[in-house]
Amino acid sequence: MADEYNADLVSVVDEDGKRHDFELLDAIETDDGRYVALLPVYENAAESLDDDGELIILEVVEEESGEEVLVPIEDDGIFEDIASIFEERLSELFEIEELEDQPTE
Fold first, then answer.
1. How far apart (Å, rounded) are the C-alpha atoms in residues 5 and 2?
2. How far is Cα 57 from Cα 33, in angstroms, rounded to an integer?
3. Would the pTM count as exceeding 0.90?
4. Mean pLDDT by 10 residues, the chain (105 residues)
5. I need a labelling partner for 75 at 20 to 30 A (CA). Which of 5, 58, 86, 99 fits?
6. H or E segment at 9?
7. What pairs with residue 86 in β-bridges?
8. Quick one: pLDDT at residue 62?
């Protein structure tokens, strides 16, 4: 039986009304709030070649209507803390190694 991979996809509408699709890589909850790590998904594979591979990290906020929205993390200190947590968790999950640790030829 072949392994199946079903990505968790999230669509985000920006301030200009443009829709962006992301793969949900991880989600965490801390004392400061709930956060997600996203990776852009492209319809055209050639577009992914121009992507820098950087994670998009957003906060999950519940509006008065009960709807959850994703917003940028405003506090730089919280952002750095959350980014470090995601980096550690994802590096373990995907066995990512730091580039500086790679031997040079």
1. 10
2. 13
3. no
4. 62 86 92 92 68 82 91 94 90 59 48
5. 99
6. strand 9-13
7. none
8. 92
